[in-house]
């Protein structure tokens, strides 16, 4: 809807001046009353300052065949608003669509933000897990190498123990041999020690026998 440049509102009963400017009928009437100087027949248009006549011609004094060519300077106008109403409806629709789109975009931005935040949280968790996984892997390989070392040491001790065991067996065998040798020697010694006694005994028996003879 067009607006009146005097009251700056929607046109009410619009009228048009000869210069083509449109005002509310009441606004233009007030302007004419206020701007008319003395008995002058013209008033200046409030927009373009072009004077226009304000006297209504007395038609009855004119011949009938020219009367239809005489028109008042200020005329009532009828503005076709159907087109502008359709445009207004389209504008309203477009505005509501824009509002919906803006809301949709805000929703999308918010959901995008929350998704981004969740993604960052997941990233953080993944990073922490990866870090702890690395630490666990390090600890595991450390333990493994320690275990390996311990196994090596155990193997070494086992070998030493086996060596000692073998040496022990050899020593035992040597000892047994020495013992048996010692027993042999003891027997021989005892035999040697008993020989004179035997001899003496057999000699005395021999002497007794001789004496009896
Ligand atoms: Zn007005
Ligand atoms: Zn004008």
TrEMBL record:
SMART domains hit by this protein: RING (SM00184)
Single GO MF annotation: zinc ion binding
Keywords linked to the UniProt accession: Coiled coil, Metal-binding, Zinc, Zinc-finger
Domain RING-type: 4-49
Coiled coil regions in record: 84-111, 161-195
Stored Gene3D superfamilies: Zinc/RING finger domain, C3HC4 (zinc finger)
SUPFAM superfamilies: RING/U-box (SSF57850)
Name used for this protein in its record: RING-type domain-containing protein
